[in-house]
UniProtKB/TrEMBL annotation:
<protein>
    <recommendedName>
        <fullName>sphingosine kinase</fullName>
        <ecNumber>2.7.1.91</ecNumber>
    </recommendedName>
</protein>
<dbReference type="GO" id="GO:0071215">
    <property type="term" value="P:cellular response to abscisic acid stimulus"/>
</dbReference>
<keyword id="KW-0067">ATP-binding</keyword>
<dbReference type="GO" id="GO:0046512">
    <property type="term" value="P:sphingosine biosynthetic process"/>
</dbReference>
<dbReference type="GO" id="GO:0005524">
    <property type="term" value="F:ATP binding"/>
</dbReference>
<dbReference type="GO" id="GO:0005774">
    <property type="term" value="C:vacuolar membrane"/>
</dbReference>
<dbReference type="InterPro" id="IPR017438">
    <property type="entry name" value="ATP-NAD_kinase_N"/>
</dbReference>
<dbReference type="InterPro" id="IPR001206">
    <property type="entry name" value="Diacylglycerol_kinase_cat_dom"/>
</dbReference>
<dbReference type="Pfam" id="PF00781">
    <property type="entry name" value="DAGK_cat"/>
</dbReference>
<feature type="domain" description="DAGKc">
    <location>
        <begin position="99"/>
        <end position="241"/>
    </location>
</feature>
<dbReference type="GO" id="GO:0008481">
    <property type="term" value="F:sphingosine kinase activity"/>
</dbReference>
<keyword id="KW-0808">Transferase</keyword>
<dbReference type="Pfam" id="PF19279">
    <property type="entry name" value="YegS_C"/>
</dbReference>
<keyword id="KW-0418">Kinase</keyword>
<dbReference type="InterPro" id="IPR045540">
    <property type="entry name" value="YegS/DAGK_C"/>
</dbReference>
<keyword id="KW-0472">Membrane</keyword>
<keyword id="KW-0547">Nucleotide-binding</keyword>
Length: 477
C-alpha cells in the first residue's frame, strides 16, 4: 500500500494505492475510489498535476434509479514533481501490465447502418482512445470486401488488435481475410473488436452482455481499451471448393428472408426488421429441404435417427467436405474432420426456419440463442417446421428476451456440424429464398430478390457447416 497527501478539489486529501490497483482519495468531507484496471481509461500528468480519466459505474437518473458508466476527470495536485513521477509511473505500469492494446488497426464502414460510423468514431471513440493513450491507424472501407483484402495483407505484427466501427458484416470480412492468410494461425491470435455502428450489431451486444456491460458505443470502446480477451468459436461453411467463415449466424427461411429482403428499407434503421418480419409472417413462406446435423453431447435424443434413404442422401453431400482439407485455398486448414455417419440425424420436409447461432445475440435486440456461449465449441440450432401464423408471431414477439426457445413450434439444440440442402418454396411460390451468413447473402434461390451474381455460394447443393472451438480471439467486456 502506498500513501501520500495530495490536493483534490481545493482540500488536502489522503491518496492511497493498494497492491491490486485500488486508488482512494479521502478528506474530512469526502471519499472516493477507482479500480485502476476496471474504471480508468488512462492518465496524464504535467509538472505537479496528475489527471485520471475515469469511466466508472455510477447511479444515474432522477433518483439514482439506474447505474451506468460516467466519464469524469479526477485531478490530483502533488507537492513535488518527483513524488508525482513515482506515482505516475507506478499507476501507468499497473495499467500497462493488464495487456491493454497500444496500437489498433481501425476499420470504419462509412455505409454501415445509418451511415453514422465516421461521426460515431470522431465524437465518441476517438476521445476515449486519446484518453487511454492508444495509437491507431484509421482506414475507411471503400467497397464490399475491402476489409477482407486489408485483413489479408496487413502487417499484423504492427498491431495489438483490429477494430471494426461497423455492423457485423465488416467483422465477418476481417475474419475471412485473416483466415485466408498463410499465417492464419498467428493471425487468429489478433484480438478483434467491434464498435457498434451498423444495422445488426449482434457481436458487439454479445460480448458486452457477456461482461454484464450495457450496450453502447462508449462501453464497447472501453472494453477494447481494457484489453480483456475471450476466445471465440469460428464456424466454417463449405460448399465444394468454396469456403467461408462465420462467427455470428447462418439462417435459412424466414430470418434470412427478412435479413436480406428488408435491405430495401434500409432508411428505416432497426425498425426495418420488425416491419418486414410482420409482412413475412402474414405472407408465410415454407421451403422444402433437407437438414442433417450432429448433436452436441447431451442433445442426442432430441430428434429422430437417420433413416436408410436419408443416409444415401447424406453420403452424396458430405464426402465433398473430406477432400480439400484446406490445401486449395492456401489459408485455414483447421479441424475439418467430418463426423461419422452414425452420428448424424436428419430431417426432411418443409421448413419455415433453420437458424444457426454462434453467439447469443443475433442483433442488439434479438436474443436468438440464449444458451449460446462464445467458445463452447458448438453452434446453437433453432428449427421451425410446420406451424400457424399465430404461433409464429407469438414466438417472434419473444425474440427480444430469448423465451421464444421455449415455444412448442421451435426445436432448440446444440450441434457440432450441420449439412443443409435448401430447396424451393412449397406451393410453387416463385421467391427462392436465401441462406444468409452473419446478415449477408451466402446463396440465393432462383427468383429471389436482388442480383445474385456476386453471391459466394450457389443455391441447392448442400452446404456443410462445422465449428472450431475458440479459434478466434475477441476483445471482451
Ligand atoms: P450493416 O449492419 O448496416 O449491414 P455492416 O458494417 O455490417 O453494416 O456492413 C455491411 C456491408 O457493407 C459489409 O458486408 C461490407 O462488405 C459493405 N461495405 C463496406 N464498406 C463499404 C463501402 N464503402 N461501400 C459499400 N459497401 C461497403
Ligand atoms: Mg459456440
Amino acid at each position: 500500500m502506498w500513501s501520500e497527501d495530495v490536493e483534490h478539489d481545493g482540500r488536502i486529501a489522503k491518496l492511497t494505492l493498494s497492491e491490486d490497483g485500488v486508488l482512494c482519495w479521502t478528506n474530512s468531507a469526502f471519499s472516493d475510489s477507482v479500480i485502476l484496471r476496471e474504471d480508468v481509461l488512462g492518465l496524464s500528468r504535467d509538472r505537479f498535476t496528475l489527471t485520471l480519466f475515469t469511466f466508472k459505474l455510477g447511479k444515474v437518473g432522477c433518483f439514482g434509479s439506474s447505474s451506468s458508466r460516467v466519464r469524469k476527470d479526477v485531478v490530483l495536485h502533488f507537492r513535488d514533481s518527483n513524488t508525482l513521477d513515482s506515482w505516475y509511473q507506478r499507476m501507468q505500469a499497473f495499467l500497462d501490465n493488464q495487456g491493454r492494446p497500444k496500437r489498433l488497426y481501425i476499420l470504419i464502414n462509412p455505409f454501415g447502418g445509418k451511415k453514422l460510423a465516421k461521426r460515431i468514431f470522431q465524437q465518441k471513440v476517438k476521445p476515449f482512445l486519446s484518453a487511454a493513450g492508444v495509437s491507431f491507424t484509421l482506414q475507411e472501407t471503400e467497397y464490399r470486401n475491402h476489409a477482407k483484402e486489408l485483413a489479408k495483407s496487413m502487417e499484423i505484427s504492427q498491431y495489438d488488435g483490429i477494430v471494426c466501427v461497423s455492423g457485423d458484416g465488416l467483422l465477418l470480412e476481417v475474419l475471412n481475410g485473416l483466415l485466408a492468410r498463410s499465417d492464419w494461425k498467428m493471425a487468429m491470435k489478433m484480438r478483434l473488436g467491434v464498435i457498434p455502428a451498423g444495422t445488426g450489431n449482434g457481436m458487439a451486444k454479445s460480448v458486452l452482455h457477456y461482461g454484464n456491460e450495457s450496450y453502447n458505443v462508449e462501453n464497447a470502446t472501453f472494453a477494447i481499451i481494457r484489453g480483456n480477451t475471450h476466445s471465440l468459436d469460428v464456424a466454417t461453411v463449405v460448399q465444394g471448393q468454396n469456403v467461408h467463415h462465420s462467427v455470428l449466424s447462418l439462417a435459412w427461411g424466414i430470418v434470412a428472408d427478412v435479413d436480406i429482403e428488408s435491405e430495401r428499407f434500409r432508411g428505416l434503421g432497426e425498425l426495418r426488421n420488425d416491419i418486414y418480419s410482420l409482412i413475412r409472417i402474414t405472407r408465410l413462406r415454407k421451403y422444402r429441404g433437407t437438414l442433417a446435423y450432429v448433436p452436441a453431447p447431451g442433445y442426442e435424443g432430441s430428434l429422430d435417427h437417420i433413416s436408410r434413404e436419408d443416409s444415401d442422401l447424406l453420403s452424396s453431400s458430405i464426402p465433398d467436405m473430406n477432400i480439400e482439407k484446406g490445401q486449395q485455398w492456401g489459408g485455414y486448414s483447421g479441424s475439418m474432420s467430418v463426423p461419422e455417419k452414425s452420428e448424424w440425424r436428419i430431417m426432411n420436409g418443409n421448413f419455415i426456419l433453420v437458424w444457426l447461432m454462434n453467439v447469443p445475440w443475433a442483433t442488439q435486440t434479438v436474443l436468438a440463442a440464449p444458451k449460446a456461449e462464445l467458445s463452447d465449441g458448438f453452434l446453437d440450432l433453432l428449427i421451425i417446421k410446420e406451424c400457424s401464423r399465430r404461433e409464429l408471431l407469438k414466438s417472434f414477439l419473444k425474440l427480444s428476451d430469448g423465451t421464444h426457445v421455449k415455444s412448442k413450434i421451435m426445436d432448440y439444440l446444440k450441434v457440432r456440424a450441420v449439412c443443409l440442402a435448401p430447396g424451393g418454396q412449397v406451393n410453387g411460390g416463385v421467391e427462392g429464398g436465401y441462406i444468409s451468413l452473419d446478415g449477408e447473402v451466402l446463396a440465393r434461390g432462383a427468383g429471389a430478390y436482388g442480383d445474385g451474381s456476386k453471391d459466394p455460394m450457389c443455391y441447392g447443393s448442400s452446404i456443410y457447416i462445422t465449428v472450431e472451438k475458440g479459434l478466434a480471439t475477441v476483445f471482451c467486456a
